[in-house]
Task: inverse folding
């Protein structure tokens, strides 16, 4: 069984203007996290497309938390699309559906350090667990279900269930939680953007230019989720679809869920502006095994790549020798949940004729052992 994942390559040769092509499907650096007795895993039991989804389970939502976390780098004000498909197959209490969390880089260090799960369930509303950052949360769009939920698409931006921590980070924004300023706790996403930065609203987020570093979809954090199983698929964030599998072909059977899946981060590399005879700086790409098999990983340039990228060289971590592709088994014995990295750089031949921005696609292929 094999799986593919691609990394976009971009180079501006002797020009300062660069245009990046749009990405329509990707699974970069996705994290599956669980607290307590919860579990979070890739599943083939049910899905929207093509063959995988994320399965979340919490036994006791008051102490359990299960999430899938998708890394992004978007200013809060620039989020213009956020939707996902969800399915809730079982529960014993209210059957609350999936929540959404936007991780906010409040201290500007380009890293999201808040322990959102701990803030909710481990040490309730302890501001130190935010680590100098913050978050914005959408409580389940459908609320108490009353019955198991089949696959349903949720548009998070039109859901009026958003809130933030208060200004001190130890409580919730809005009235009804010890605050005197209106409005109530929940609001729509558009309304939330108008309230952030308004001194009359109690929040620790100063403005809408702060960066969102991750989007988390989760269940747990309160007793609204008890013995509950939820599935998530086809998350769309600003035109990028995260379907939790690098390609549409997985070679799986329903009763033997052998999953071959990898992710690569970053999903794009900009080699910058180079002149003929120059060589780019070394760039690292981390490949993570998110499947259930140990795999070998090979790499090759997609046929759609511009000719210049035939000069691309790569090596395993920092110990090997650089060589041109294809790079067969450049990573070997990558265990489940393991990560290894390769390094690449791009030399421009001295006789190369500049032609502006050039693009390529580097494809990583995982083969199960």
Result:
């Amino acid at each position: 069984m094999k799986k593919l994942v691609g990394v976009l390559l971009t180079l501006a040769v002797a020009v300062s203007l660069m245009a990046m092509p749009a990405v329509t499907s990707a699974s970069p650096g996705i994290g599956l996290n669980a607290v307590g007795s919860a579990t979070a895993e890739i599943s083939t039991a049910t899905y929207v497309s093509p063959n995988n989804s994320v399965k979340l389970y919490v036994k006791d939502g008051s102490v359990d938390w299960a999430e899938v976390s998708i890394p992004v780098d978007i200013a809060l004000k620039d989020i213009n699309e956020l939707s996902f498909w969800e399915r809730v197959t079982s529960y014993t209490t209210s059957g609350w559906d999936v929540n959404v969390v936007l991780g906010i880089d409040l201290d500007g260090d380009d890293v999201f350090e808040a322990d959102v799960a701990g803030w909710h369930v481990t040490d309730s509303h302890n501001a130190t667990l935010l680590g100098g950052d913050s978050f914005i949360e959408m409580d389940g769009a459908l609320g108490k279900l009353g019955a198991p939920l089949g696959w349903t698409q949720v548009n998070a931006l039109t859901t009026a269930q958003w809130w933030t921590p208060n200004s001190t980070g130890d409580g919730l924004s809005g009235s009804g939680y010890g605050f005197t300023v209106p409005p109530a706790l929940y609001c729509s996403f558009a309304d939330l953007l108008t309230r952030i930065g308004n001194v009359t609203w109690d929040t620790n987020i100063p403005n809408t230019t702060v960066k969102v570093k991750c989007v988390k979809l989760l269940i747990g954090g309160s007793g609204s989720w008890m013995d509950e199983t939820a599935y998530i698929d086809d998350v769309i964030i600003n035109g990028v679809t995260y379907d939790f599998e690098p390609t549409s072909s997985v070679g799986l059977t329903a009763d033997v869920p052998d999953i071959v899946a990898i992710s690569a981060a970053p999903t794009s590399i900009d080699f910058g502006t180079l002149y003929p005879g120059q060589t780019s700086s070394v760039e690292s790409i981390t490949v993570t095994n998110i499947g259930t098999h140990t795999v070998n990983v090979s790499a090759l340039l997609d046929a759609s790549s511009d000719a210049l990228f035939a000069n691309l060289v790569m090596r395993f971590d920092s110990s090997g020798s650089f060589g041109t592709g294809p790079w067969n088994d450049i990573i070997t014995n990558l265990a489940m949940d393991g990560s290894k990295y390769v390094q690449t750089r791009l030399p421009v031949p001295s006789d190369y004729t500049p032609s502006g921005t050039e693009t390529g696609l580097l494809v990583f292929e995982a083969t199960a052992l």
About this structure: The chain has two helices and 22 strands. Residues 116-122 form the longest helix (7 residues). Confidence is low (pLDDT under 50) at residues 9-27, 175-183, 247-253.
